[in-house]
Write a structure and sequence with these properties.
The chain has 550 residues and is α/β, with parallel strands linked by helices. The chain has 3 domains: 31-210, Alpha-D-Glucose-1,6-Bisphosphate, Chain A, domain 3 (3-Layer(aba) Sandwich), CATH 3.40.120.10; 217-444, Alpha-D-Glucose-1,6-Bisphosphate, subunit A, domain 3 (Alpha-D-Glucose-1,6-Bisphosphate, Chain A, domain 3, 3-Layer(aba) Sandwich); 448-547, TATA-Binding Protein, CATH 3.30.310. It has 17 helices and 22 strands. It has helices at 21-30, 60-77, 93-106, 122-133, 170-185, 196-201, 210-217, 224-230, 247-254, 291-294, 325-339, 358-366, 381-386, 416-429, 433-444, 458-465, 529-547; strands spanning 44-45, 48-52, 83-87, 111-114, 142-146, 155-161, 205-208, 233-237, 257-260, 302-306, 313-317, 321-322, 348-352, 370-373, 389-394, 398-401, 448-455, 476-477, 480-488, 495-503, 506-512, 518-525. A 7-stranded mixed sheet has the order 1-2-6-5-3-4-7, with helices on both faces. A 6-stranded antiparallel sheet has the order 17-22-21-20-19-18. The chain is globular, with a radius of gyration of 22 Å. GO terms for molecular function: magnesium ion binding; phosphoglucomutase activity; phosphopentomutase activity. This is Phosphoglucomutase. It is an enzyme of class 5 (isomerase). Belongs to the phosphohexose mutase family.
């Protein structure tokens, strides 16, 4: 197995890569999925149902079926408050929103849509749900987020957030998925639907000022006074995403020295530099995709970007350029637990099993409990909701945190807040997060890490997800005794959908992606780069054997 880095990686996207938006939208309405074909059925991964209209994996029928299933789920569970809905800047998101609203209105669901048809970031929907439900025991709200996150421009995505504000757990998505596929198999005969214009004018459809509500509350999670008083000069690249029109109002309200690098919205995302595999992908953690902001790093004290639905962040510093997500999250955890005195004394640190072991060391030094869970932000929802977790984060640059007073902020990933916190950190410490990372590893040890990605079809992904400890025959990893092989997370004993192999000074984990047709091997060494490469080589051999390749 190997990861082939495209010769286009890091370069401006050529015209040949740009999606034909008119054909994409035509395929959304014209191509119907065949529910007898597994790849064309509704399938909720770690972040909802995703696919492309060209491949008949994200089409009008999928959205109509999922929306009807959600309406039926709400009715069955007695969820009768408003439903908050938002969508991002992917081309398929607008028609998917229209399809969903047609079903929601026909089912009599009170639906709150953004004023003036604005794009709405994922964390803003979570924030709206939680704010509405606070101190309520009945008439609870829930939400829908229409986004494929940072995935390529030809993708669409659809996610349901229940009243706890976070991504739906598998018991919910399993029910919705099963019911939606039954509706597909029945030719949508049981789907209630009205024309969009009628849905838009329905008494149950109302506009909501998402932007004002979210921005006005940010001071309860970010210390803008310290940022402003220190005069931190910031730059932000929204990457053409759903928060594109949030940043200027944030700067104006809180009187920040914040420059928006670009407010361009382009469904082809033609302004992007190409990602590692030759695809356009709005990933703020990828140095290939972040070339524009990296090139501007010396113009700002700290700069940041968010992905298309603004639930992931990328931090660019003068001292180190684009920070690896694990590096910034380690600094962020260390900072927050030292500077949020009103958080519970026993509030823990939540991380995924593929996040850096440096977080383990930071948590131990802070005297905080570490809660290690499988990949998927849904595993942090309960802890963030009740304040037992001060932080929940993923190695893919997704995280959320508590308010200053220790109460819930969002239970879904929020890319905007950690971006702004990089400025708070810089202001309070007089050093940017890159410099603070160097100080951290000088004390706790420096991890050398890499992640290998490669294409994998659904059958291969399924095989890898079932990889078990007894399939690891070796007793050593890169010359060290293997301490432990796990396929369930220590924090909650849930299956991790792959394995992780631990040794004294290094580890690797292998798992299929829940959102794309790729698989990933994560590896880390606290020795050196040669040791890291040895770990990766042995990990690749194990995965290749599991997949039946040479």
């Amino acid at each position: 197995m190997s990861t082939h880095v495209s010769p286009l990686a890091g370069k401006p996207a050529p015209a040949s890569l740009l999606v034909d938006v008119s054909k994409l939208l035509a395929a959304y309405g014209d191509l119907r999925p065949d529910p007898s074909v597994p790849a064309q059925r509704v399938a909720f991964g770690t972040s909802g149902h995703r696919g492309s209209s060209f491949e008949r994996s994200f089409n009008e029928w999928h959205v109509l079926a999922i929306s009807q299933a959600i309406c039926e789920y709400r009715k069955g569970k007695g969820i009768d408050g408003p439903l908050f809905i938002g969508f991002d800047t992917h081309a398929l998101s607008q028609p998917a929103f229209e399809s969903a609203l047609e079903v929601l209105a026909a089912n009599g669901v009170q639906t709150l849509i953004a004023r003036r048809g604005e794009f709405t970031p994922t964390p803003v929907i979570s924030h709206a749900i939680l704010t509405y439900n606070e101190k309520r025991n009945a008439g609870l709200a829930d939400g829908i987020v229409i986004t494929p996150s940072h995935n390529p421009p030809d993708n669409g995505g659809f996610k349901y957030n229940p009243p706890n504000g976070g991504p739906a757990d598998t018991d919910i998505t399993g029910w919705i998925q099963q019911r939606a596929n039954a509706l597909l198999e029945g030719g949508l005969k049981e789907v209630k639907r009205v024309p969009f214009e009628q849905a838009r004018r329905a008494d149950t459809t109302r506009e909501h000022d998402y932007r004002e509500a979210y921005i006005g509350d940010l001071a309860n999670v970010v210390d803008f006074d310290v940022i402003r008083s220190a005069g931190v000069h910031m730059g932000v690249d929204p990457l053409g995403g759903a928060g594109v029109h949030y940043w200027a109002p944030i700067a104006e309200r809180y009187k920040l020295d914040l420059t928006v690098v670009s407010d361009e919205v382009d469904p082809q995302f033609g302004f992007m530099t190409v990602d590692w595999d030759g695809k356009i992908r709005m990933d703020p953690s990828s140095s290939y995709a972040m070339q524009r902001l990296i090139g501007l790093k010396d113009q700002y004290d700290v700069a940041f970007a968010c992905d298309t639905d603004h639930d992931r962040h990328g931090i660019v510093t003068r001292s180190s350029g684009l920070m690896a997500p694990n590096h910034y999250l380690s600094v962020l955890i260390d900072y927050l637990f030292r500077n949020r005195p009103d958080w519970k004394a026993d509030a823990g640190v939540g991380k995924t099993v593929v996040s850096t072991a440096l977080i383990d060391r930071v948590a131990k030094r802070l005297g905080r409990t570490l809660n290690e869970v499988p990949v998927g932000f849904k595993w942090f929802v309960d802890g963030l909701f009740d304040g037992s977790l001060g932080f929940g984060g993923e190695e893919s640059a997704g995280a959320s945190f508590l308010r200053h007073n220790g109460t819930v902020w969002t239970t879904d990933k929020d890319g905007i807040v950690p971006a702004l916190l990089s400025a708070e950190i810089t202001a309070r410490n007089g050093r940017d997060p890159g410099e603070l990372y160097r100080a951290l590893v000088d004390e706790l040890g420096e991890p050398f890490a890499d992640r290998v990605e490669a294409p994998a079809n659904p059958a291969q992904k399924k095989k890898l997800a079932k990889l078990s400890p007894d399939q690891v025959k070796s007793s050593e990893l890169a010359g060290e005794k293997i301490d432990k092989v796990i396929d369930h997370a220590p924090g909650n004993d849930a299956a991790i959908g792959g394995i992780r192999v631990n040794a004294a000074s290094g580890w690797f984990a292998a798992r299929p992606s829940g959102t794309e047709d790729i698989y990933k091997i994560y590896a880390e060494s606290f020795s050196d780069k040669d040791h890291l490469q040895a770990i990766l080589k042995e990990a690749q051999q194990i995965v290749d054997t599991a997949l039946g390749s040479a």
